[in-house]
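pasting for the record
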Amino acid sequence: MTETSSRPRTDVHTIARMSARAAERYGERLASRHLHDGSWQETTYAETGAEIDAIARGLIALGVQAGDRVGILADTRREWTLSSFAIGAAGGVIVPVYPTNSPRE
Protein backbone atom coordinates (compact mmCIF):
# COMPACT_ATOMS: atom_id res chain seq x y z
CA MET A 1 0.00 0.00 0.00
CA THR A 2 1.32 3.46 -0.88
CA GLU A 3 1.37 6.34 1.62
CA THR A 4 -1.04 8.96 0.28
CA SER A 5 -1.23 11.20 3.33
CA SER A 6 0.64 14.49 3.39
CA ARG A 7 1.14 14.22 7.16
CA PRO A 8 4.74 14.05 8.36
CA ARG A 9 5.98 10.56 9.11
CA THR A 10 8.14 9.46 11.98
CA ASP A 11 10.98 6.95 12.06
CA VAL A 12 9.54 5.47 15.26
CA HIS A 13 8.10 2.02 14.71
CA THR A 14 6.99 1.18 18.25
CA ILE A 15 5.25 3.05 21.03
CA ALA A 16 8.01 1.83 23.37
CA ARG A 17 10.55 3.88 21.40
CA MET A 18 8.35 6.96 21.03
CA SER A 19 9.29 8.73 24.27
CA ALA A 20 13.04 8.28 23.72
CA ARG A 21 12.72 9.60 20.17
CA ALA A 22 10.69 12.61 21.35
CA ALA A 23 13.37 13.36 23.97
CA GLU A 24 16.07 13.23 21.29
CA ARG A 25 14.10 15.27 18.80
CA TYR A 26 12.46 17.92 20.99
CA GLY A 27 14.83 18.03 23.99
CA GLU A 28 14.21 21.21 25.95
CA ARG A 29 10.80 21.96 24.45
CA LEU A 30 7.87 21.87 26.84
CA ALA A 31 6.26 18.42 26.91
CA SER A 32 3.70 18.80 29.69
CA ARG A 33 2.33 20.81 32.58
CA HIS A 34 0.97 19.11 35.66
CA LEU A 35 -0.15 20.06 39.14
CA HIS A 36 2.24 19.12 41.92
CA ASP A 37 1.61 20.22 45.50
CA GLY A 38 -0.82 22.88 44.30
CA SER A 39 1.38 24.54 41.68
CA TRP A 40 1.89 23.92 37.99
CA GLN A 41 5.14 22.23 37.04
CA GLU A 42 6.55 22.17 33.53
CA THR A 43 8.49 19.23 32.14
CA THR A 44 10.54 19.09 28.96
CA TYR A 45 10.69 16.18 26.56
CA ALA A 46 14.25 15.47 27.72
CA GLU A 47 13.18 15.38 31.38
CA THR A 48 10.21 13.17 30.57
CA GLY A 49 12.40 10.82 28.55
CA ALA A 50 14.91 10.59 31.41
CA GLU A 51 12.13 9.79 33.90
CA ILE A 52 10.73 7.06 31.65
CA ASP A 53 14.22 5.63 31.11
CA ALA A 54 14.90 5.58 34.88
CA ILE A 55 11.61 3.79 35.58
CA ALA A 56 12.27 1.28 32.78
CA ARG A 57 15.77 0.55 34.15
CA GLY A 58 14.26 0.09 37.61
CA LEU A 59 11.73 -2.39 36.26
CA ILE A 60 14.49 -4.33 34.51
CA ALA A 61 16.54 -4.31 37.73
CA LEU A 62 13.51 -5.76 39.51
CA GLY A 63 13.46 -8.62 37.01
CA VAL A 64 10.93 -7.51 34.38
CA GLN A 65 11.72 -9.31 31.15
CA ALA A 66 10.40 -9.05 27.61
CA GLY A 67 6.79 -10.17 27.48
CA ASP A 68 6.18 -10.00 31.24
CA ARG A 69 2.85 -8.49 32.18
CA VAL A 70 3.06 -5.49 34.49
CA GLY A 71 -0.10 -4.10 36.07
CA ILE A 72 -0.77 -0.45 36.81
CA LEU A 73 -3.48 0.25 39.38
CA ALA A 74 -4.03 4.01 39.48
CA ASP A 75 -6.28 6.88 38.57
CA THR A 76 -5.42 8.67 35.34
CA ARG A 77 -2.41 10.85 36.13
CA ARG A 78 1.05 11.75 34.85
CA GLU A 79 2.72 8.89 36.72
CA TRP A 80 0.41 6.42 34.99
CA THR A 81 1.62 7.68 31.62
CA LEU A 82 5.30 7.56 32.65
CA SER A 83 4.87 4.03 33.99
CA SER A 84 3.05 2.89 30.88
CA PHE A 85 5.80 4.10 28.56
CA ALA A 86 8.46 2.66 30.89
CA ILE A 87 6.85 -0.78 30.96
CA GLY A 88 6.86 -0.81 27.17
CA ALA A 89 10.45 0.42 27.03
CA ALA A 90 11.45 -2.40 29.39
CA GLY A 91 9.78 -4.90 27.06
CA GLY A 92 6.83 -5.55 29.32
CA VAL A 93 3.16 -5.72 28.49
CA ILE A 94 1.01 -3.05 30.15
CA VAL A 95 -2.00 -4.32 32.09
CA PRO A 96 -4.10 -1.31 33.12
CA VAL A 97 -6.33 -1.73 36.16
CA TYR A 98 -8.51 1.19 37.12
CA PRO A 99 -9.79 1.71 40.67
CA THR A 100 -13.32 1.66 39.28
CA ASN A 101 -12.91 -1.82 37.75
CA SER A 102 -15.10 -4.44 39.35
CA PRO A 103 -13.52 -7.61 40.80
CA ARG A 104 -14.90 -9.56 37.83
CA GLU A 105 -13.19 -7.23 35.35
